[in-house]
Amino acid sequence: MSETAATATAASDDAEPTVVVEAVSKHYTVGSRVTALDGVSLTLPTGSYTAIMGPSGSGKSSLLNLIGGLDTPSSGHVAVDGKPVSTASEDERAAIRGTDIGFVFQTFNLMPRLTAVENVALPLVFDGWSRTERLDRATDRLEAVGLANRTDHVPSELSGGQRQRVAIARALAPDPALILADEPTGNVDTDTGATVLDIFDELHAAGNTILLVTHERHVAERADQIVHITDGEIGSIEATGEA
Amino acid sequence: MDGREGLRIAVRSVRAHKLRSALTVVGIVIGIASVITFATFGASVQAEIIGDIGDSNAGNIYVFGTPSDDEGFDRVLQPVFTEADLAAISEIDGVTAVLPRGSIQVSSIRAGNQTLARSQVTATTPESITTGSIVAGRSFTSGEREVVVNERLATGFSKNLTAGSTLTLRYPDGEERPVTVTGVVNGTRGELPVSNFARQPRLFAPVDPFYEAVVESPSAGVRQRAYPQVTVVTDPRQTAETRKAIEDYLADDADARQLSASDTELVARSGSDFIDEISDVIERITRFVTGIGVISLVVGAIGIANVMLVSVTERTREIGIMKAVGARNRDIMSIFVIEAALLGTLGSLLGVPLGLLVGRGAAAYADVTFALAPDWIALAVGVGVVVGIVAGLYPAWRAARIDPIDALRHE
User: Fold this and answer.
1) Which structural domain, as residue segments, surrounds residue B297?
2) pLDDT at B275 > cutoff 90
3) How many domains does chain A have?
4) Which of B361, B397, B292, B389 has its CA nearest to residue B34?
5) Which parts of the sequence belong to the ABC3 transporter permease C-terminal domain (chain B) (predicted)?
6) Do B334 and B248 sit in the same domain of this protein?
7) More confidently predicted of A9 and B225
8) Do A122 and B325 touch (CB under 8 A)?
9) Is A135 within the bounds of a domain?
10) Is the ipTM of this complex over 0.85?
11) A23 belongs to a structural domain
C-alpha cells in the first residue's frame, strides 16, 4: 500500500486523476422516465479522499455504481485509472471491478459460506491467482485490518465491525486504484464506525484514493472534500479543513 | 477462475443444503440405477441363453416348415418330413445324424395316483439321448414301451421318478397305456434352441411304437411316419456347405415340399441363426425397457434444474457480490453448471452400484448368470454427468444474467 506515496491533498493537475467523470447522465424507465444523474462531472485526483453527501434519491448511489463499473451511464464518460469504464464491455467492466476497484458496502456483502480469508481472496479468484498466492495475499490484508486471528471464521461467527473489516480487507486484496465505500459505517455502532473510519484514514495516509458515500456529516468530514449531490446534480464541492 | 475453485464452491453449496441435494440426487440415482439394472439384466439373460444354446449345438441344423409370412413358431408345424426325406438327408455329405422330432398328444401323465396334466411328450430316436445328457438310468429302446423323462418331470411327483418307475399315459381318446421310465435326462440332442427355456416337464419316447403320424410318401409311394421337425447334426467344419445341400434338397426333391402348402417355406436354420434372432429380440426388449429407465433419468434432470433455479434465487445476493468483486458472467455460469454437474455425477456414482446390485438380484431371481454390460455402465455415468450439466445450463444462464446492482439490493 505504500508504493503510491502520494500525499493526502495531492491534487496536482499534471498527474492523471484516478477518477474522471464527464457530463454523466443516467436515466431509468420505471413506468415513467426518471433522471438519476443529470450531467455530472467530477474528477478525483490520485490519493484524494472524497465524500459524497446527499439525501436519499439524490443520485449518489447511482454515481457510485457508475464509477464502480456496476452500471453504465445513459450518456457521458467515466474513466477509472485511465480505463474507460463507461464504454467497456461487460467482461471488461467485471475485470475492472475485480482489479482496479475495491468495494466496501454498508451491509458488508460477504459470502456467507466462505471463511474470512476466502472472502478476502475472492476478487483474486476471478483474476486468476493461484490458491496459495491469493490466500497469502488475503492473510496479509486481514493482518493489516487487525484480523489475523479470525482468518478461518465464517462471517456469521464475526461481529459487525469485524465483518466490515473483512470487507475492507477484501477491497484491498487486489491493490485497487480506487476504494469505493457506500455508507461503510451505516450498519455498525458508533465505536465500531469510528474504528472503520480510522482504517480509512490510514488507507488515505498510505496514498489510496477513496470515494465514500454517506449521509452523516461527521463521516463526510473525515474526507478532503465533500461533494453535495441533490436531484442528480452536483450542488457544491466543499473542501474540509485539514484536521 | 479455475475449475477447482468452482468445484470447491459447488461442494460447499451442496454440503450447505444436504437434504435438498440428497433428494435431488435420488432422482438421478433412480434413473441411472434403473438403466443399469435393465441393461445388465438384459445382458445376463442374453448371455445365459446364448450359453444355453451353446457350442455343442453349433453343428446343428434345424429343419422345419414355416409359413412364409410368419417368422415365429406360433402355428402348429405340420408333419411333412417323411422317413424317405430323413433317409435322403442322411445321405448328404457332412451329415452325421438325422434326428426326427414329433410330438405325441397326451392329455395327462399319471404316476401312482398322482396325475400331471399338460406335459409335453416328444417322439424321437434313441440317438437323441446322448450319454452326456443322462442323469440316471439309460436311454429308451426303439420298439419298446420305454420313455425317458427330464429332471423337471422326474421331480414333479411326490415320489421322484427313477429308472424302472412306471407311468400311465392317458391319450385324448381316453385310452390309457403304461410305460416304463428307463432314465432321467437333462436335455436331448437336437432340441430346438428355444425349447430349452421353458423348463417344463418333458417326456421323450421312441418313435416306434409311440409316434403315429403317417402320410403317404410321394417318392416311396407307401405310407410312412412323417415329422414336423428334423434336426440334422452335421460335421461342424462343413456346416455351411451341408446346410446349402439340405436347402437344395428341400427346395426340389423332398417329400416335404410336395406335402406342404405352397406358402410354407421349408427352412434349414443353424444354431447361430437362433442365437442371432434371440439376441436381437432380447436386445430390443432391453432397449425398450432401458428406455423406460431413461424416462426416470429425465425426471431426475428436471429435479436438478428445479433445485438449481431455487438455488440461483436464494443466492442472488452472492451472485451480486461475486460480480462486484470481478466475476464475469461466464464465471457465474460455470459455478452453477459445475454444481449441477456435481449433483449429476453424485447421482451416477451412487446409481451405478445400486443398479448393479439390483441387476444382480434380478439375475439371481431369474436364475441366470449375472453378466455386466460395461458399455451401458459407462454410458449411464456419462449420461448422469451430461444430464446434470444440461439441467444446470438454464439456471446457470439465469444466474449469469442477474444484474449486480439488483442482486446486491436483494434480501
Assistant:
1) 3-51+277-409
2) no
3) 1
4) B292
5) 292-404
6) no
7) B225
8) yes
9) yes
10) yes
11) no
**Nine cell digits for residue B86:** 430323413
Residue B160 lies in a domain: yes
Residue B324 to residue A95, Cβ atoms within 8 A: no
Out of A71, A90, A97, whose CB is closest to B325?
A: A97
Query: How far is the CA of B41 from the CAs of A62, B87, B311, B381, in angstroms?
Result: 64, 44, 37, 18
The residue among B259, B294, B326 that closes a domain is: B259
pLDDT score of B286 more than 60: yes
Q: Looking at the predicted structure, is the pLDDT value of residue B312 above 70? A: yes
Q: How far is B306 from chain A (nearest CA, A)?
A: 22
Is B328's CB within 8 Å of A94's CB? Answer: yes
Residue A177 lies in a domain: yes
Looking at the fold, whether B201 and B313 belong to one and the same domain comes out as: no
Which residues on chain A are in Cβ contact (under 8 Å) with B12?
A: 113-114
DSSP calls for chain A: --SS---TT---SSSPPSEEEEEEEEEEEESEEEEEEEEEEEEE-TT-EEEEE--TTSSHHHHHHHHTTSS--SEEEEEETTEETTTS-HHHHHHHHHHTEEEE-TT----TTS-HHHHHHHHHHHTT--HHHHHHHHHHHHHHTT-GGGTT--GGGS-HHHHHHHHHHHHHTT--SEEEEESTTTTS-HHHHHHHHHHHHHHHHTT-EEEEEES-HHHHTTSSEEEEEETTEEEEEEEPPP-
The predicted pLDDT at position A196 comes to 93
Q: In what order do the strands lie in the sheet with B81-82?
A: B81-82, B223-227, B214-216
Both B123 and B223 in one domain: the answer is yes
Whether B207 and B94 share a structural domain: yes
Residue B116 has pLDDT above 90, yes or no: no
3-state secondary structure of B102: strand
Asked if the Cβ–Cβ distance from A95 to B326 is below 8 Å, we say: yes
**Which of B76-80, B127-131, B290-294 shows the lowest mean pLDDT across its residues?**
B76-80
Per-residue pLDDT of chain A (243 residues; tens, 9 = 90+): 444 433 334 444 456 899 999 999 999 888 888 899 999 999 999 999 999 999 888 899 899 999 999 999 999 999 999 999 999 999 999 999 999 999 999 999 999 989 999 999 999 999 999 999 999 999 999 999 999 999 999 999 999 999 999 999 999 999 999 999 999 998 889 899 999 999 999 999 999 999 999 989 999 999 999 999 999 999 999 988 654
User: Does the residue B74 lie in any domain?
Assistant: no
- The domain that contains A55 carries what CATH number? 3.40.50.300
- Identify whether residues B152 and B29 lie together within a single domain: no
Looking at the partner chain, which of A90, A99, A125 has a beta carbon nearest the beta carbon of B329? Answer: A90
Q: Answer yes or no: do B114 and B228 share one domain.
A: yes
Tell me whether residue B151 is in a domain.
yes
Partner-chain contact B1 A126, CB within 8 Å: yes
Q: How close A127 gets to chain B, by Cα (Å)?
A: 7
Does A127 fall in a domain? yes
> What percent of chain B shows pLDDT beyond 70?
94
Verify that B219 and B291 share a domain, yes or no.
no
- Considering only CB atoms, B405 lies closest to which of A65, A90, A99, namely A65
Distance in Å, alpha carbon of A238 to nearest chain B alpha carbon:
29
Task: Report the number of distinct structural domains present in chain B.
Answer: 2
Q: Tell me which chain B residue has its CA closest to the CA of residue A101.
A: B325
Task: Looking at the structure, tell me whether residues B296 and B367 fall in a common domain.
Answer: yes
Q: In this structure, is the dihedral angle defined by the CA atoms of residues A198, A204, A209 and A211, taken in order, positive or negative? A: positive
> In angstroms, rounded to a whole number, what is the distance separating the alpha carbons of residues B63 and B81?
9
B209 cis-preceded (ω within 30 degrees of 0) = yes
- Tell me, what amino acid is at B54? G
Q: A206 lies in which domain range?
A: 34-239
